[in-house]
# Entry
Amino acid sequence: MFYEPKNGHGLPHNPFNAVVSPRPIGWISTRGKDGQDNLAPYSFFNAVAYVPPQVMFASTSAKEDRGDTKDSVANIRDTGVFAVNIVEYAARDLMNQTSGSWEKDTDEFALAGVEKAACETIPCPRVANAPATLECTLTQIVQLPGEANFAVFGEVTGVHLRDNCIVDGKFDVTQFNPLTRLGYRDYSVIREVFSLQRPDDS
# Structure
């Protein structure tokens, strides 16, 4: 099968997300200029640079009470900071609860019963028991082609690692099993890893 997206795919559901998978989930926490906290998952998320460390996530829809975007992007535009919380398999139901299109004055931490903690380098909340959290300052927001498509880039200014996830000096993902996003309504979980030696490794 071959299709051009501009002409449609002819399938019952769009296969694009299923092709580009698995994708890490950035559980983005923000605080609005009014002090209202927000927590929402984004699967268009990744690390993009080492030095300085930088990440990005993309928001691809809008809410009526936010105009051209969603709560996370609106808050970041106002405050210039956000935190990326890594989602473990054990938190899958809590993460899913925060994915709803809740009103902008809803605190998803409270809604889903997620424990909140303060960040160290930015005025923003974080998920207290997350395996890892990246505190970020905004570097740029890029409006992408298409309605309500925004890519948010941030520099990591602080890193929280849960102590039980550090084994022999390494951050060990098998200690918490990262949740990943597939296509449609499907998810997967990382339970085993393997290593490969690069050809130019000495």
Remarks:
- DSSP finds four helices and 14 strands in the chain.
- The longest strand covers residues 132-143.
- The two ends are 43 Å apart (CA to CA).
